[in-house]
Design a protein that fits this description.
Elements (H helix, E strand, L loop, with lengths): L19 E6 L5 E6 L15 H7 L18 E6 L9 H7 L9 E3 L11 E4 L13
Parallel strand pairs: 1-5
Antiparallel strand pairs: 1-2, 3-4, 3-5
């Protein structure tokens, strides 16, 4: 269950006004395209409303999030392959957490903090190293 983290700066986000899609590419190569309905944001209580993590959880896409989506870990690290320019700017707190994630790129974001504005479809890769090593198998 998510919540808020009172110790970090609040991210400045612009929520989408029209439907758009997010394509998630899982570590095994599975591609899941989901349609985002702005009227249904937030999908849950995990991550910022409308974040890539919020959308993933609402649509059944598996994306680790040990801290509950409050920008206190790096397990929801994603690589935004397409559409990064439509996402909110990352905060210093987010980038501090990303420093803990392996295999980051210039397109790396935390899924819990990255909120697309819906002006373009998004393609997101979930790195194979995004695993909660303490989590038991399914």
């Amino acid at each position: 269950m998510g919540g808020t983290n009172p110790y970090i700066e609040k991210a400045d986000v612009e929520l989408p006004q029209k439907p758009y899609s997010v394509t998630y590419i899982s570590p095994g190569g599975k591609v899941t395209k989901v349609e985002v309905d702005p009227a249904k944001i937030p999908y849950g209580q995990t991550g910022l409303p409308g974040s890539l993590l919020d959308i993933a959880m609402g649509k059944g896409v598996e994306l680790e999030h040990v801290c509950g989506g409050v920008c206190a870990c790096s397990t929801c690290h994603v690589i935004v392959k397409q559409g990064l320019e439509t996402c909110n700017e990352g905060t210093d707190d987010e980038f501090d957490q990303l420093d803990e994630a392996p295999m980051t790129t210039l397109q790396s974001r935390l899924g819990c903090q990255c909120v697309p504005n819906g002006t373009k479809d998004i393609v997101v890769e979930i790195p194979a190293v995004n695993k909660n090593l303490v989590k038991e198998g399914h």
